[in-house]
Amino acid sequence: MSLCAENLHYSYGDRPVLKGVSFTAEAGEFLSVLGPNGVGKSTLFRCILGLLTPTQGRTVIDGKDTSQMHPEELARRIAYIPQSHSPVFNYSVEDMVLMGTTSRVGRFAAPGKAQQAQAMDALERLGIADLASCGYQSISGGERQMVLIARALAQQTQILIMDEPSSSLDFGNRIRVMQTVKKLTGEGYTVIQSTHDPDQAFYYSDRILALQDGKVLAWGHPKELLCNSLISALYGTEVEVYSLRDDSVRICVPADQHR
After folding, report:
1. Contact 123, 94 (CB under 8 A)
2. 122-137 per-position pLDDT tens digit
3. Radius of gyration in angstroms for the set of CA atoms belonging to the chain, rounded to a whole number
4. What are φ and ψ of residue 110, in 5° steps?
5. Domains of the chain: which residue ranges?
6. N or C terminus: fewer CB in 10 A for the chain?
7. Distance from C-alpha of 76 to C-alpha of 64, rounded to nearest angstrom
8. pTM listed for this prediction
9. 16-51 pLDDT, tens digit each
């Protein structure tokens, strides 16, 4: 399932935030959106998810304008995975994942056996079925993020939108979450994440979308884009980008720290 943003504009009052953003994410692709704070990444996601209406432009999924979709139809196509958070109530992990099935049942119906099976299947796919009866607030940050991914899988969509999914995680959990998400693209999922980590974006992404001042600074393959000049321009600081492992990895370091 492909997603295409076409010339998206959005303003908060008289302050423009998105200024003609366009890109395409194909089925099975991992797209990372890079950019400093306040550049419009979250606003872009809200427009894609139908939470905000662009002042100009549109989002298209498999040729259909999302503005013509009912919210329930859109929820069957796109799942949103926020940063790990704590709900007011200490729901069980299974109940948290069950929430992802609501777009597939009637408006006033409760999840039944079929939805419970979907939830458990999602937990098993991610290897965390043993957490099903645990309270969501009592598990680790990495486990919470995996539960949110499981909830998205239970939603049975093919497009996953992720808002800095690993930003609050320790090093080990960050790797586990990113490896899990990357594996999903091999199953045909389209994944779009926002991130502040150029190294991570290079290692996992099929394409990178770099945003600056609400505009697309660059879009394309990581090996073609991720270089000293792009990262320095994007974040306003001089860096040097080094290649490792026959250019399967690139790392960014401050230019003044080089020895």
Report:
1. yes
2. 999 999 999 999 999 9
3. 19
4. -95, 150
5. 1-77+158-172+188-226, 84-156
6. C
7. 14
8. 0.92
9. 999 999 999 999 999 999 999 889 999 999 999 999
